[in-house]
Amino acid sequence: MNFQSGTTSQQAYETLRRRFARMGQIRNALGILGWDKDTMMPAGASDSRAESIATLAVLSHELMTAPDMADLLERAQPPEDAMAQANLHEMRRQHAHAAAVPADLVEAASRAASRCEMAWRTARQNSDFASLLPELETVLSRTREIAAAKAEALGLSPYDALLDQYDAGTRQADIDPVFTELAHELPDLIATALEHQKSLPAPLPLTGPFPVAAQENLGRETMRALGFDMQRGRLDVSLHPFCGGAEDDVRITTRYEEDDCINALMGIVHETGHALYEQGLPTAWRAQPVGGARGMSLHESQSLLMEMQVCRSRPFMEWMAPRLRAAFGGASGDPAWSADNLHRLVTRVRPGFIRVDADEITYPAHILVRYEMETALVAGRMKLRDLPEAFNARIHDLLGLKVPEDRLGCLQDIHWPSGSWGYFPTYTLGAIIAAQLREAAERDTPNLMSAIAGGDFAPLLGWLRPRIHARASGASTPQIVRDATGAAPNTGPYLRHLRQRYCGQG
Amino acid sequence: MNFQSGTTSQQAYETLRRRFARMGQIRNALGILGWDKDTMMPAGASDSRAESIATLAVLSHELMTAPDMADLLERAQPPEDAMAQANLHEMRRQHAHAAAVPADLVEAASRAASRCEMAWRTARQNSDFASLLPELETVLSRTREIAAAKAEALGLSPYDALLDQYDAGTRQADIDPVFTELAHELPDLIATALEHQKSLPAPLPLTGPFPVAAQENLGRETMRALGFDMQRGRLDVSLHPFCGGAEDDVRITTRYEEDDCINALMGIVHETGHALYEQGLPTAWRAQPVGGARGMSLHESQSLLMEMQVCRSRPFMEWMAPRLRAAFGGASGDPAWSADNLHRLVTRVRPGFIRVDADEITYPAHILVRYEMETALVAGRMKLRDLPEAFNARIHDLLGLKVPEDRLGCLQDIHWPSGSWGYFPTYTLGAIIAAQLREAAERDTPNLMSAIAGGDFAPLLGWLRPRIHARASGASTPQIVRDATGAAPNTGPYLRHLRQRYCGQG
């Protein structure tokens, strides 16, 4: 494509394309620096690395908010193709977010978050919410100022402006009815699941040790089977598993424990779901806004599709059971290593306090509580000092648990101290979409799950590639889901899935 | 320091300080991206990584050549301290280099080098100089254009302008007499060394295998003993050993072979010498031009001081011998693992064709030949098509070897194809300085070598830190050497060292 001889508005688009490509390359660099920070960096380099990362972030922000950007974005006329049009749309959205917030507020918010994160580490350890309150008040104030600024610029409510940072186009008005329905269904659903679980044989424990090298080998084999391209990515170790890296260089991490062989594996398949999305983004739109993943709900749908819908399924365990047994020297015929037992192990229901340790069916309860709290806090309908009581009350309503200390309650997550308000709902929206995609993929691909039982994941990936991955940010999340499944995002498949897997229904 | 309330010229300096700090942080980011490329990056990411690296390099170049830079550099008045004055001096020098070359020439040179490097890999494999000639002509033309542009801007000869890129202030007029002297001395020196070697017992080979894990452990132990701070650096594996990374994050690499336990270790101590320099740079001048290493000669002096002067010495082997033997399960009393035998192994003289495999005493011959060739080529006194014949003739003069094919001659190094003209002499200048520093350190620290024999490297590092490392780019290389040793850089200590170690003289 060459717009050199085109009109002014085409040249404006071309100028934007080049500038956003630069920002894209800075983002790639930041992706590698961030990965390195969490996997390779020696401890003494943390201040220096923070400076390098901050410098690149500021350079990118300056490119985005250059004085002539608004004019270019207004004048730009992309070619007559849907992706190019969507690219301009996404450029405008990203620019609106960046330009809405004055630089000094960005910096104040970033400093407040850094201080609050530090305070949070101590406060969580000591289960001392009062000690965190002043710092968290500051973070919430800055967050509300950012929300107000973006709300005005984008014509959204403050909370919707925050949501839009993580999930373009997702609105509170879409989430509220869905989460209200879930809040209504969940307590019964969990009770039924616990009842049903009693009717099953108790899962047999696996006996270790489970050497790290064997876990890693099996993890790599599984990644490759799911479709991860090792020529364009890596698997490493970090304290908290993540999917990061850069274009053509998608890097996932996990953490191994010698006395457990399931957690690291499930972590790997979860991050592999994220990674397959990144590896499937369209190469023609590299480094452009439209070429990036659509948002966190769809991203989480891909990780949960792989982990929850696929790898915690009974058919998957058909394939995995002999591999697990061989990797860790289990006796042939030992019922602990049977697919049935392994499936029971990875679908055990046990209500608990900690979100990241929650099973599939109690997990949304944790999200609902956080969503209720943060919408009220951002709207100013609730005071931060009232958070612990309100949080614990709703945990009790939904899970029947009495939170004994804030360490196990509202102090457990880093999201709020670090300024990530509006992020939590994407986890459960992702779970809902994952179920809907799996149902549609099975409908379109009759032997999908039996292929998986035979270790053939290509039909699934072949279904996802054009329908989800290759669409990148070319349409809204609801549109992509509708085009892929024939229906708007809805809780039907998700509730059916939970009832079927955990309640023995259907 | 706060210049906000100062005069305009102080504010100009402060503005420059902030801009150069940004460039310093981009350099840190590039250091990690470069390290990652050679140690961690999956193969499929190479194009994408090249884009990210190019983008950061262009951003840095744009900061350096911003329209108001020349004016700021002219007006700037730093505080009355020598390092700040030197900082401005170094800012001006770096700016002059960057501003001298038009952007399209920078790009043309970079493209020519990329193409030529690719052609070189094939040409070297096939020993086919003719196939490389067109691409190498282009690289040389672009290099001569850059040299001419910088020569005019800096008031230097073209070759001096190239040299100055790698080694600020080093001039051909300084090198010529030194290298002429070496060219005169070397053939006899090598002949004498080979004669002397015949009078010694033949070194006994070490019997392997030498497991990589044991080599790595010993390498780390040695690094730490030499003074490497593992909290601010790493050791990894790459195809070609290097020292890279970023401030507070100095990363060295080596390559292990299971059938040899000496090469990787000597690679590690060489790179540790580079790394100790970087780790010893003054923290107060982080990310500023004056805070960087002085140049490649001094850098190479630090690696060769550690490798050649220290770790291939008989006293070092006193300390190392029992460690090597223990690491690889040698029998106690086996003479192969004695300090004497190990010393003979690491000081063996064997004239050969390949520079990077050369021993200490024949190495400078390889450099002299390359220096003669590249000065003649840059000056236009020689045609590239005549290079192989001229190269081989001089190898024969200095080493008595007849180069059988260009793969083993002028095609062996990547420097010329990649556009690094003016780099070669720094290797031998570094070797000369290393000997001079060792002699001075021994004079100032009477038991230096016996401390080393006992594994105590702190006196040596204590001597180097204030005299070399902490001075960073605060003075010229000759000035730093003069202040450290009491004499201008000269070949006396180097020739004494070679005669003593290899000819049994003195």
From TrEMBL, chains A, B:
According to its UniProt record, the EC number is 3.4.17.19
Q: How is the cofactor bound?
A: Binds 1 zinc ion per subunit.
What catalytic reaction does the record list? Release of a C-terminal amino acid with broad specificity, except for -Pro
Give the highest taxon in the source lineage.
Answer: Bacteria
Sequence similarity: Belongs to the peptidase M32 family.
Species this chain originates from: Komagataeibacter melaceti
Known cofactor(s): Zn(2+)
Question: Record's InterPro entries?
Answer: Peptidase_M32_Taq (IPR001333)
Q: Where is the active site?
A: E271 (proton donor/acceptor)
Gene Ontology terms describing biological process: proteolysis
Q: Which SUPFAM superfamilies match?
A: Metalloproteases ('zincins'), catalytic domain
Q: Which GO terms describe its molecular function?
A: metal ion binding; metallocarboxypeptidase activity
Q: What is this protein called?
A: Metal-dependent carboxypeptidase
**Which residues are involved in binding Zn(2+)?**
H270, H274, E300
Q: Does the keyword RNA-binding apply?
A: no
Q: What does this protein do?
A: Broad specificity carboxypetidase that releases amino acids sequentially from the C-terminus, including neutral, aromatic, polar and basic residues.
Q: Could you tell me the keywords of this UniProt record?
A: Carboxypeptidase, Hydrolase, Metal-binding, Metalloprotease, Protease, Zinc
| Entry-linked PANTHER family | CARBOXYPEPTIDASE 1, METAL-DEPENDENT CARBOXYPEPTIDASE
